[in-house]
Amino acid sequence: MTKDICWITWEDHRRSIELAKELGADYYFVKSNEAFIVRHILKAVKTISLIYRYRNGLVVVQNPSRILAALAALMKLIFRFPLIVDRHTNFRLGKGISLNPAIWFVILCSEFSLKVADLTIVTNEFLKNVVEKKGGRAIVLHDKIPELKQDAQSLELPGKVNILFVCTFSPDEPYLEVIKAAEQLPNDYCVLITGNYEKAGLDPSSDFIANNVRLLGFVSSNAYDAYVQYCDMMMVLTTSEWVLVCGGYEAMAAGKPLITSDTMTLKAFYGQSAEYTSANSKSIAQAAMKVANNPDIYKHLIAQECLEKTKLWRKQWSELDTFLENAEAFSSTTR
Fold first, then answer.
1. Domain check: are 165 and 136 in the same one?
2. Are residues 36 and 89 in the same domain?
3. Least C-beta-crowded within 10 Å: which of 41, 109, 168, 261?
């Protein structure tokens, strides 16, 4: 496309950074450290200003946030610019009906943006069908295999076998089972856990935290890439179906053996290249020891999968590129 392109997000995410770079878009991470209501008002004002600036071009927004997607959709109705929403797995799949007004508000934001956006990008066919059943238009594009920082700082990790558990301490991540699994591993194994453990109420000095567990907290991008490059294996777990865990792409990029959850979606995506585990401590510990005993096999498998997923991504990207180049795709948006 020859139009100016902006990519706006309220949550800084490696997927958005990589895709914005590939698209040639100006990337804007809109943030605020104020209290909840003030924070959203300030981010909305900044976003309105950015979208107005790019109203004659192409606007891409990341969802989450649903509020960001709805705001962009509302402005699209006014200024008639083409709008693409990169939608993560936040459809409330499998969750019951809520009487919480806040939940209903974000659901309305979600439904509105799906119908108004010219295109919604999702990570798998199931979510594509979800979008289309709700009246939207969707295309599948999984994460691009990221480029890890080659100048990442050197690290001397504490264990003979170091397992990097990529975690955000969200409800779908069985982090308590991982911590329990560490107790079942040999003493020279070390489980390194990323993410803000304070939001889960964890205390590194607690007796609950085994001696071979390290709660890293939030680490910088440079430090994170270093942990990825120096660990012996990576672990990324979820109890949610239809989620493609981002850490798996980073494992492929670094050629690290991957342990992930035994969901249908993850098994279909990673095939034979990963070791799968249930969300219980015994299964997690067994998976870690199996990978540690066969590291070269898993490194070879993940390297082969990286090549295949790179080819698949290029094919998916070409389909998106065709969509972007087709003026008719943006029905009712061309000035």
1. no
2. yes
3. 41
